[in-house]
Specification:
The chain has 5 helices and 2 strands; from the N terminus they run ααααββα. The protein is an all-alpha fold. It has a single domain, classed as TTHA0068-like (Hyaluronidase domain-like), CATH 1.10.3450. A two-stranded antiparallel sheet has the order 1-2. The longest helix has 18 residues. It is globular, with a radius of gyration of 14 Å. The C terminus is likely disordered.
């Protein structure tokens, strides 16, 4: 299930079909073990960022880019055949309103687990975060 959803999500992302890719990555995330959930959530955040950029939602895009970087960092340089370092570099360079087609490169070497010398980010359930309109500017508390 995970491998099929990952392969489908990667193919859709490479084709620029970001909304559909996010659905495939979510399927993989739901089926993943706890030590890999951040990897799949990171992929979801990446494609949703590109999707939001295509819709002109700069605030939503920026938020997704930040979440993607946080979740994927522990899986660099590569994980499950994905060149995570390349993906993180694209996330870092991405500028809402001026984003190029996402290039999800295959890794030269497949890693099966997060890097041992990098602490994974704290898991945060998306449902725990307060809901607000993504088009509204953030308010400082």
């Amino acid at each position: 299930m995970i491998e099929k959803s990952l392969a489908e999500g990667l193919a859709l992302a490479r084709a620029g079909r970001y909304f559909e890719a996010h659905e495939a990555f979510e399927d993989a995330w739901r089926a993943a073990s706890p030590d890999e959930r951040d990897f799949f959530q990171g992929l979801v955040h990446v494609v949703v960022a590109w999707y939001q950029d295509g819709r002109g939602n700069e605030t939503g895009c920026r938020r997704q880019l930040e979440k993607a970087a946080r979740r994927l960092a522990a899986y660099a340089p590569s994980h499950r055949g994905v060149d995570v370092s390349s993906l993180l570099a694209q996330v870092e360079r991405a500028r809402p309103g001026a984003m190029l087609l996402l290039d999800v490169a295959e890794a030269d070497r497949v890693e099966d687990a997060p890097q041992p010398d990098v602490e994974p980010p704290l898991a945060v359930d998306e449902e725990e975060q307060p809901e607000r309109d993504e088009d509204e500017p953030a308010r400082d508390s």
